[in-house]
């Protein structure tokens, strides 16, 4: 399945997943979190998270699967290609790092921060939200740079 149509399908699914993932986190960070902090109301964040995770987590899973497939199409199956010192390989490496950090933050949030979230300790969850949102934006910027060979942030 190495056709332009297959590539377009993978890229389209990847971009749609990114729209949901990044967009949801931007709404959470820019609209829901400031209100929750202002009102000292953790339920606002908890309610958003509960509703959003039904589409956000599948969107992230789609991004991971399609991202790996796209990286394989661009770099091939050679370990040397994935660890090379050129723009596209660096983008893939950066996105894998962003993914690892996102997973670590998500696990910490799910296992520790969310169960302990109260009105008086909401800033702890706020830090998670800001960090995951920043990583989501970095994912997007890195992915967009592939079109230009990894330029400008990832060029050798």
Strand content: under 5%
DSSP strand tally = 0
Average pLDDT, rounded to a whole number, is 92
Oligomer classification: single chain
Q: What summary fits the major beta sheet?
A: none
Helical content class: over 70%
Low confidence ranges: none
Q: How does this structure look, described?
A:
By secondary structure, the chain is mainly α. The chain has one domain. Helices cover 82% and strands 0% of the residues. The protein has 5 helices and no strands. Helix 1 runs antiparallel to helix 5, helix 2 packs antiparallel against helix 4 and helix 4 packs antiparallel against helix 5. The radius of gyration is 17 Å and the shape is elongated.
Give the structure's gist in a few sentences:
With 156 residues, the protein is mainly alpha-helical. It is built from five helices and no strands.
């Amino acid at each position: 399945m190495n056709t332009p149509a297959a590539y377009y399908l993978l890229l389209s699914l990847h971009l749609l997943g990114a729209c949901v993932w990044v967009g949801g986190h931007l709404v959470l960070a820019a609209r829901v979190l400031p209100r929750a902090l202002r009102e000292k109301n953790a339920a606002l964040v908890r309610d958003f998270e509960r509703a959003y995770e039904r589409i956000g987590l599948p969107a992230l899973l789609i991004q991971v699967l399609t991202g790996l497939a796209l990286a394989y199409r661009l770099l091939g199956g050679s370990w040397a290609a994935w660890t090379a010192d050129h723009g596209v390989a660096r983008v893939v490496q950066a996105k894998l790092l962003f993914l690892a950090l996102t997973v670590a933050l998500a696990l910490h949030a799910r296992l520790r921060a969310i169960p302990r979230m109260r009105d008086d300790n909401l800033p702890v969850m706020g830090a998670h939200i800001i960090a995951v949102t920043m990583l989501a934006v970095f994912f997007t910027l890195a992915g967009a740079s592939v079109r230009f060979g990894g330029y400008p942030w990832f060029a050798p």
